[in-house]
Amino acid sequence: MPRPVISDPRRTSVEIHDHLRRLILEGLLPPGTELKQAELARAFDVSRTPLREAFRMLQEEGLIDADINHRGRVTSLDAADLDCLYAARICLEGMGVRVTAGRLTRQEVQEASAQLHDMDRAERGADLAAWHEAHRAFHLLLVARCTPAVLRTIASYGERSERYVRAAQERHQDEYAQRRQEHYDLFAAVVAGEPHRAARLIARHLARTAHWVIEDIAPGQEARDVQEATDMICGPEPEKVGNDSP
Known about the structure:
Strand content: under 5%
Radius of gyration: 20 Å
Order of helices and strands: HEHHEEHHHHHHH
Number of domains: 2
Helix content: 55-70%
CATH architecture of the largest domain: Up-down Bundle
Structural class: mainly alpha
Shape: globular
């Protein structure tokens, strides 16, 4: 297991938490992996005290289950958790693009454009790590006018979603072309100052991702929370009326 770089001894528990969190989100510690505080303390050359705090934070985030024997286990991918997580993202990011539309600085527009090109380059080179890095930065720029507290929540939810997406992404290479166009359309709506269109686009973009990932995890399970959140942002789909209806 890669060792963390402890840059500040006063932040050892935080930096160990960030290190383990990244390994979980990137799939290097897959679901079901057992984590033992004593073994990690020896491997990382730290005491068990910061490990206990790091485990506590990971458990609060739902990334591990911990027990009284000082062991943890990386939680499994859960369709209900993903449904609720993406519903929250749709609501927050839908609001975020609305308040950001038309208000990006020139530098932010250039940065977002650069992230789009980086995503395209990473896709061509099959570099998933680089693609996800650029993707995270791009999505945060689309909601840049949110307050710092809201931005932290959006970033956290986006990172928590990542391990689900990574688990399904390699089996859905055909999704890249559609996702690429959705990102460019989103960017255009935010830059042009079209808040209603931007909110609808981000809601549908996130909902599509949630649906195909949930179908991979639990085939046939409905994404009810995602649908409710999408309806709240976009309005409910009109009911289909049969030819023999009055």
